[in-house]
């Protein structure tokens, strides 16, 4: 049965271990993709296991729409096999005695409910060339595609993905990401996606719940939450950036580019062909990939040029760099420049200038600016 548009997964759960305690109270919209984000050891996978019903002796309550999964005070607990969830692990966990088709048919035969069909899943994940291949002959990326297919054929009401790209190298991650993007719109199954990689969260998640030390540190729309996180708050590697939303205008297939609308101006990025015109996307731009100019430049290879106003200037007291925040429309864009350039350009708050974006790709790393920099 389809979920109501405003249905939520309501969690108020607590689970204690010898050296760690999880205490989470949050509502997860059962629509689109919600990311669970945070540093290693923050409790992301533990919370996902609690949602799945894999963890015992959990205190509190969990409700999936109108179904009670957990009420410890009343002694109620719905086991994992009755929760109608699909779970994808880091290591795929395929049946190695079966070929790819056998793995998919196993899930297909066991679950005859409403949901995607065999042919539809095979087409969506480009699995046709792999159907007769043994699991041992699959690459890491191919194994995860098969695992996703098997999970889809279990016809889940909720998909739980536990860092499915963590074991893959960069090339294999880039192979899988477009499939994950397309699944969110093609099948419409609400998904909770665990990752400590901000590029995956930015690219896939509509909303994000940030965990720190087993508790919710922040939650909300992806761009707003990630852009507001202070430096060092979730234990990531450094790299100041701006996270913002833009709207898909068109795809330029021959150039492998996508044109976006950003604050009323065109912004060109590497192809986002899985996104439809009119769709909102979240972007992350590193401060080191933003250059500044006092006048509108000409004759440059950088095509993304935006007029803005200096909002803030912060110099490192013991370093060579300064962080300049430029207001472009409603977005506070951060640029990292040398202190030498800062002095030569005589940048001050209120000055009009132009920001040049060297790259505007989905993130590989991100940090938001700290007020003390």
Question: Helix/strand/pairing class, anyone?
Answer: alpha+beta
Can you tell me the overall shape? globular
Strand portion, in percent? 35-45%
Q: Uncertain runs with pLDDT below 50, 5 residues or more?
A: 361-373
Instruction: Report the CATH topology name of the largest domain.
Output: Rossmann fold
Largest sheet: 6 strands, mixed
Strand order in space, largest sheet? 7-8-9-3-10-11
Order of helices and strands: EEEHEEEEHHHEHEHEEHEEEEEEEEHE
CATH hierarchy, class of the largest domain: Alpha Beta
CATH architecture of the largest domain: 3-Layer(aba) Sandwich
Number of domains: 2
* Helical segment count: 8
Helix content: 10-25%
What distance lies between the first and last C-alpha atoms, to the nearest angstrom? 51 Å
Instruction: Name the CATH superfamily assignment of the largest domain.
Output: P-loop containing nucleotide triphosphate hydrolases
Domain ABC transporter: 3-238
Domain Mop: 299-366
Protein name: Molybdenum ABC transporter ATP-binding protein
Keywords: ATP-binding, Cell inner membrane, Cell membrane, Membrane, Molybdenum, Nucleotide-binding, Translocase, Transport
